[in-house]
Amino acid sequence: MTIRGVEALRGAELVLCEDTRMTARLLTHYGVATRMAPLHEHNEDARIPDILGRLRAGARIALVSDAGTPLVSDPGYRLVRAAIVAGLRVEAMPGANAAMTALILSGLPPHPFLFMGFAPPRQAARLAAFGRLRAAERAGLSATLVFYEAPHRVAETLADMATAFGGRQAAVARELTKLFEEVRRGSLPDLAAHYASHPARGEICVVVGPAEAEVESEAELDTLLLAALHTESVREAAAAIAAVTGLPRKQVYARALQLKSQG
């Protein structure tokens, strides 16, 4: 928490926050007595007209999130956008941010990077999203990828990343800037195996290294299929890799059968 941030909270007439109980602990710690009001994904649209009215009347209003930075996978974008459209002044006061902190600690190339927020929670949608990223990489994208993830989904997301991105180097960072901060680095398959048997806790960031130079398409397909066939049936592996590569499912299934028969 910066000195400027504390002064802004003290000078505000109202603090908008996701959870007043959580923010009350922050304000109490710094001796701030400013009144609070909830602003979250379920009430943000309804609150905007009243908040803009207050701002037009000269009120100073602060916006905080439960952790990290407002708008960055947290509420606030619709309010900030509305204030900008209305010609009202908006200031940002940088503080702790998990995505940037994880990128710094990952040991992976820091720029260019692409922040993706949370991966889709369902596997089919997740593999499709990773497939779109692979398509962009084939078209020339080369960037370190940064994701947020819920602790109960880390192992399955890492496994899907290993399917989509192969053996790239990656890092899993959890509880950043907190008491039990931890960063584990390794290949995606190794990290997937670790978290499959060691459930993660806390808030998680996953950082994935950029794509390397493309190999021949047939060789890449075989690599992806062989990795998937270690843990999945031929049908499941073919479906997953078809989603990742965008290749016809029948073609991928036929190649998976060939690889399986070769042992």
Helix fraction bin = 40-55%
Low-pLDDT parts are none
* Structural class by helix and strand composition: alpha/beta
Structural shape: elongated
Number of beta-strand segments: 8
For the largest beta-sheet, the strand count, sense and barrel status come to:
5 strands, mixed
Identify the CATH homologous superfamily of the largest domain: Tetrapyrrole methylase, C-terminal domain
CATH topology of the largest domain: Methyltransferase, Cobalt-precorrin-4 Transmethylase, Domain 2
Oligomer: single chain
Ends distance: 56 Å
Q: Indicate the radius of gyration in whole angstroms.
A: 22 Å
Number of domains: 3
User: Can you identify the CATH class of the largest domain?
Assistant: Alpha Beta
CATH architecture of the largest domain: 2-Layer Sandwich
Mean pLDDT: 92
Q: With helices defined by DSSP (H or I, 4 residues minimum), what is the helix count? A: 11
SSE string, helix = H, strand = E? HEHEHEHHEHEHEEHEHHH
